[in-house]
Specification:
Blueprint lengths: L1 E6 L16 H15 L7 E4 L3 H8 L6 E2 L9 H8 L8 E6 L3 H9 L13 E6 L7 E7 L7
Helix pairs in contact: 3-4
């Protein structure tokens, strides 16, 4: 199974947290990463997003249907995210999760056997591939920041 973790792009500061919108820079980050993803996502990739406005805007840049899952809201645990997206390392298919830090970093760290989370930059993706292998059931296929995609 492929699991692509996409952190929302740069957002405004403010309260309430769920209403924070992308900045103009964040919109550009989301568009750049969406262009890169559109060319590479496997057919049939399920796209799921947090209900927060900034994740909804990031997911919208992909120009694909996506599901909004309350289980991906800010403060979710890594296990909640994996359960919500149906993670099965040796299972078929692919899921793109548009969510938040530190949760996405915790998901990546957990799956890669680390003792904590990893830093995931705003607008960046971490692409993990499950495999049926002893010792390391998950490999990091790609890690990409939108800054590397500048036109």
């Amino acid at each position: 199974m492929e699991l692509i973790l996409w952190r929302h792009a740069e957002a405004e500061y403010g309260i309430p947290d769920l209403e924070r919108a992308l900045t103009s820079h964040g919109e550009q980050q989301a568009k750049a990463m969406a262009r890169w993803l559109r060319d590479r996502l496997p057919d049939g990739t399920r796209v799921v997003a947090s209900p927060a406005r900034r994740t909804q805007q990031t997911a919208t840049a992909l120009h694909r249907r996506f599901e909004t899952l309350e289980a991906l809201a800010p403060g979710a645990s890594a296990r909640q995210v994996l359960e919500a997206c149906g993670w099965a390392p040796t299972g078929p298919g692919s899921v793109l999760v548009v969510g938040h830090q530190p949760t996405l970093g915790e998901v990546a760290g957990l799956l890669l056997g680390m003792r904590g989370g990893v830093p995931v930059r705003k607008g960046a993706i971490w692409w993990l591939t499950g495999r049926a292998r002893e010792g390391s059931p998950v490999v990091l296929t790609a890690c990409l920041s939108p800054a590397l995609l500048a036109d």
